[in-house]
């Protein structure tokens, strides 16, 4: 069903509409065309959107699916009255019943980023991202105590993307520390990590997948050699078991799954949503 178009409309960034819409669409074996339409914040833009949606339906012979998180009622009214697509107003579905249940009106704010410059939580999130970049691949041992979580594992096991996801999504200060041959020879957790053992979480990966990833960066090298990858993974996992470090394999897991598992295990005191 690739000849079906899905629109994501918002008067903000559209991140909520797209995230929620994709979660629902994932339940169906379809591969629709995605069209993102953020910042639809005037009636004139709403009319342009209507023309695009209705024209798409005429061309494809099937009505488009439209996810919207519009909070401006005037703009939403234009979309609802003229849209020939299947309209799913996510705020209408959830906000109206909550207003009734809570006995109060929602503030109808446009997006969670609309007043970011005034938000302490937003600035904390930026600080967490900068912290994670500064502490990527063991670049700095300074202020490891300030980390909410410290990821360890061999090179290319998924530490950097996971650290940045934890910072961007949850505002957590995530350090990541690569395990190197010298650590395996000592057969001990790197000394810099010992005082922070409770914050440490390990990532591992299958040797075959690790070799594939490393070959993309350094083909036909000792670094990417399958035998070397097997050795490093074996030693890293053995160290984690000896030291009682919680760990998981990233081989078949998404960043979201990895991050969720880490949060459940480490349970940082400071956690933002």
How would you describe what is shown here?
The protein is an alpha/beta fold and 273 residues long. It is built from ten helices and eight strands. It has helices spanning 15-25, 43-60, 73-82, 90-102, 120-134, 159-170, 181-186, 207-217, 226-243, 255-266; strands spanning 5-9, 33-37, 65-68, 86-89, 149-153, 174-178, 200-204, 246-249. The strands form two sheets. A four-stranded parallel sheet has the order 2-1-3-4, with helices on both faces. Strands 6-5-7-8 form a four-stranded parallel sheet, with helices on both faces. Strand 1 (5-9), helix 1 and strand 2 form a beta-alpha-beta unit. The longest helix has 18 residues, at 43-60. The two termini are 35 Å apart. The mean pLDDT is 88.
Element layout with pairings:
Blueprint: E1 5-9, H1 15-25, E2 33-37, H2 43-60, E3 65-68, H3 73-82, E4 86-89, H4 90-102, H5 120-134, E5 149-153, H6 159-170, E6 174-178, H7 181-186, E7 200-204, H8 207-217, H9 226-243, E8 246-249, H10 255-266
Parallel strand pairs: 1-2, 1-3, 3-4, 5-6, 5-7, 7-8
Helix pairs in contact: 2-3, 5-6, 6-10, 8-9
Helix content: 40-55%
Low-confidence stretches: none
Outline: elongated
Main-sheet strand order equals 2-1-3-4
Class by helix and strand content? Answer: alpha/beta
Distance between the termini: 35 Å
Rg over C-alpha atoms, rounded to the nearest angstrom: 24 Å
Average pLDDT score: 88
Instruction: Work out the helix count.
Output: 10
- The H/E string reads EHEHEHEHHEHEHEHHEH
How much β-strand is present in the residues?
A: 5-15%
Main sheet overview: 4 strands, parallel
């Amino acid at each position: 069903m690739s000849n079906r178009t899905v629109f994501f409309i918002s008067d903000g960034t559209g991140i909520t509409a797209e995230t929620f819409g994709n979660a629902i669409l994932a339940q169906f074996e379809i591969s629709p065309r995605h069209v993102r339409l953020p910042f639809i914040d005037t009636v004139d833009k709403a009319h342009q959107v209507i023309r695009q949606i209705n024209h798409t339906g005429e061309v494809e012979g099937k009505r488009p699916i439209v996810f919207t998180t519009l909070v401006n009622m005037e703009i939403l009214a234009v979309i609802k009255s003229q849209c020939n697509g299947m309209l799913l107003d996510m705020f209408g579905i959830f906000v109206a019943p909550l207003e009734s249940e809570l006995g109060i009106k929602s503030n109808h704010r446009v997006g969670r980023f609309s007043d970011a410059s005034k938000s302490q939580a937003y600035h904390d999130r930026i600080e967490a991202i900068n912290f994670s970049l500064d502490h990527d691949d063991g670049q700095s041992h300074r202020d490891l105590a300030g980390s909410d979580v410290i990821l360890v594992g061999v090179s290319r096991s998924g530490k950097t993307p996971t650290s940045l996801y934890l910072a961007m999504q949850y505002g957590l200060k995530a350090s990541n520390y690569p395990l190197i041959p010298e650590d395996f020879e000592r057969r001990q957790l790197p000394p810099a990590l010992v005082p922070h053992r409770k914050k440490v979480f390990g990532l591992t990966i299958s040797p075959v997948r690790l070799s594939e990833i490393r070959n993309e960066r350094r083909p036909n090298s000792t670094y990417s050699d399958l035998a070397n990858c097997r050795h490093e993974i074996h030693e890293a996992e053995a160290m984690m078991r000896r030291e009682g470090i919680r760990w998981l394999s990233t081989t078949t897991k998404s960043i979201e799954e990895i991050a969720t598992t880490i949060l459940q295990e480490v349970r940082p005191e400071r956690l933002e949503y």
